[in-house]
């Protein structure tokens, strides 16, 4: 991909033009990121207090019944959002689906092992563990090796 930046007083505001032979998933991700929300933090609740969470601190986000929990090193914080809403906010190059009910932070993975049934057991830097279902293993491995 070729990137050119033209800095000049003649430009009133930033604009982006994409030249491509065909529409690709990479282009779709770039456009989605450019148009997407710029939220840097999430707010959750723990022990009756509102807690500010940096996405980088999150190991994974899990839906359990009607509750959505952000699991961090040594604690879980309830988010007052639906899992799909959290997924839309988080950086898709850093976070990916592990299962229908879990979104994991790729940057917090320490190591993983393949189980006989095709699932992966992920161990995070914090020591937390979570599983990736077979359906999401290929996508997760691609994101790990290509950065998104």
From TrEMBL:
The lineage of its organism: Bacteria, Bacillati, Bacillota, Bacilli, Bacillales. Keywords: Cytoplasm, DNA-binding, Transcription, Transcription regulation. SMART domains: LytTR (SM00850). Residues 42-146 form the HTH LytTR-type domain. This is LytTR family transcriptional regulator. PROSITE patterns: HTH_LYTTR (PS50930). One of its GO terms (molecular function) is DNA binding. InterPro entries: LytR-like, LytTR_DNA-bd_dom.
